[in-house]
Amino acid sequence: MEIAQIVGLALVTTIMLLILRQEKPVMAVLLSIVFSIIIFTFLMGKMTSILSVMSELTRRAGINYFFLSTLLKILGVAYLAEFAAAICQDAGEQAVAKKVEFAAKIIIAVLALPIMIAILESLMELMPV
Amino acid sequence: MSVLADIVRNVLVIIILASFLELLLPAGTIRPFVRFAIGLFVLIAVLNPVLGYFFHDNNFQLNWWECKIDEEAADSIAARGQEINERMVDQNQQMLQEKLEGQVSAVILLVPGIEEVHTEAEIKDGTIGRLRFTIYIERTEANEESGEIKVFIDEEDSAELKQQIEKKVNNVVSNMYGLEPEKIEINFEGGG
């Protein structure tokens, strides 16, 4: 029962954070980062199995792997940015959190931009001049 | 009919995958951006076969995003590439070894007292691993002039000469090729 372990760890961390935030706010931020890393590494194996099943499905369906890899990259960027932004918000640094979100949006746009250009150019080619 | 079946299958799988990935999306301000990117892929999956069917003469940029790699063909191409690469590396290494052996032999012959030299070079990953010399020492002038055959060779002189030659060869090779003396092996044949 991994969820029980995660819930237990989350409760302990929350209580410790409540105490630390009043006494030593810097340590509270560190604890929050450590908790995020622990959860991330804990779920790494499960994530790998999901990814392998998805890539196997796309291979069997004969679908371009580029599709899945780009989507997964976008998903990874989104998750990492959310993690970082949440930690910054917890530390009371709203401005930094906004900057992280802004960077993630730009990176996602850059990943999607070539596809958008390809679609637009193909459609423009079809249009009568 | 098979084209239609392909289109339907592709779109179906992509939409199912996209919906599953959307479930995994983090709930935040980034969500609409990710949904937009997923939407673009669904658009490609729908648009590409349709455009390919109706306008198959046109070479749309869209086709580049829908290329499928035949895994077996890709594996065999990669294996052949590896084989060609290995063969090229072997050939280059052999050529380098032959040239190096010739070059080193020519340089060693300039050392006084050496009549002939055979060089064997060991090359590992493009660098000189070891140099092995078999040196044939010149017969002394006194012997040639007098035409006498010495039954007992003066061992002390011979050892001194060999030592001198060895020192010079070591110096020349280590200075020219930056090789440590431990990597230079010298054997003597004949002489006296």
3D architecture notes:
The complex is a heterodimer of chains A (129) and B (192). With 129 residues, chain A is mainly alpha-helical. Chain A is built from five helices and no strands. The longest helix of chain A has 33 residues, at 94-126. By secondary structure, chain B is an alpha+beta fold. Chain B has helices spanning 2-24, 31-54, 71-108, 141-146, 155-177; strands at residues 114-124, 127-137, 184-189. Chains A and B meet through helix 3, helix 4 and helix 5 of A and helix 1 and helix 2 of B.
Shape of chain A: flat
Full CATH superfamily name of the largest domain in chain B? Cation efflux protein, cytoplasmic domain
Q: What's the CATH architecture of the largest domain in chain B?
A: 2-Layer Sandwich
What is the overall silhouette of chain B?
rod-shaped
Main pleated-sheet profile of chain A: none
Helix content of chain B: 55-70%
Main CATH class of the largest domain in chain B: Alpha Beta
Q: Structural class per helix/strand content of chain B?
A: alpha+beta
- Determine the structural class of chain A based on helices, strands and strand pairing: mainly alpha
How confident overall, as mean pLDDT of chain A? 85
Share in helix of chain A: over 70%
Work out the strand percent of chain B. 5-15%
- State the total count of DSSP E strands of chain A: 0
Gyration radius from CA atoms of chain A, angstroms: 20 Å
Structure annotation, total helices of chain B: 5
Give me the CATH fold name of the largest domain in chain B: Alpha-Beta Plaits
Number of strands of chain B: 3
